[in-house]
Amino acid sequence: MNNNLSSQDIAQYRRDGFLVIENFLSPDELAFWRTALDEAVKKRNGNKMPDRKEVYGKGDENDKSYYDNVFDQLINLWQDNEKIKQIMLDERLGKMAAELAGVDGIRIWHDQALIKKPWANPTSWHLDTPYWSFSDRRALSIWVALDDATYENGCLFFIPESYQKTTFENPGIGKNMGAIFTTYPEFKTSKSIAAPMKAGSCSFHNGLTIHGAHANMTPGFRRAMTCAYMPDGNAFNGTPNILSEEAISRLKVGDLLNDNEITPLIYTKI
Ligand SMILES: O=C(O)CCC(=O)C(=O)O
Ligand SMILES: [Fe+2]
Known about the structure:
Blueprint: H1 7-16, E1 18-21, H2 27-44, H3 64-67, E2 72-75, H4 82-88, H5 91-101, E3 105-116, E4 123-126, E5 140-145, E6 156-158, H6 180-183, E7 193-195, E8 202-206, E9 211-213, E10 222-231, H7 245-249, E11 265-268
Antiparallel strand pairs: 1-8, 2-3, 3-10, 3-11, 4-9, 5-8, 5-10, 6-7, 6-9
Helix pairs in contact: 2-4
The structure holds 2-oxoglutaric acid and fe (ii) ion (FE2).
């Protein structure tokens, strides 16, 4: 695993709000991640969550049939597959996330397989952090390509530096590719950066970076394994997101999100 970040990598991430790392996984690691993903997806039987079909409070219900054809989205596979658990709880991933975010501790918020099936819809420009149950401008995700991600099958695109200005307000993710630019007109004329990646390469992006992806214009699959990271020390903001009803019933707004069964601490500096 190519997990050493240079000071230049960190500076680039802090400026742009994203960073691409080529050849992140070795061929053997890539093979292991692919096997793990295929096993986990088969077992999940189409359910988004380990304990239920859907995520709470997405707020995009009107566009459900469209959104269901953006990608298959399987969340928290680490909780029901040992291989994914081994992959996701790897301290090296946590250390990279911590170094980029500039924090001392990193928890898994949730992992997520994002599989663009043949002919899938595009992923409209959106933000991630406003969906989450905590509000931290440093929160971020890793996105690992398990197939080549190309202009043809739905590679990611980012609006550089956008994370420095966006807020926790949620513009949503609907059918209109560019709807977010109504909320953020200052980025309407920004040049987007495409991130085509060979299988085994990865990117990190800040959860407040405006990002999206092409449609899949091919008969093949575009598989990605991702994980959202929460800096340690964050508190519940009242948004349910991936938390279970049982977990929510025990939480008040302002309570620390520090249950290792739900959000494992995978790295601490000290
Ligand atoms: O894979 C995609 O199409 C979108 C990925 C994304 O939005 C994310 O990882 O936050
Ligand atoms: Fe996203």
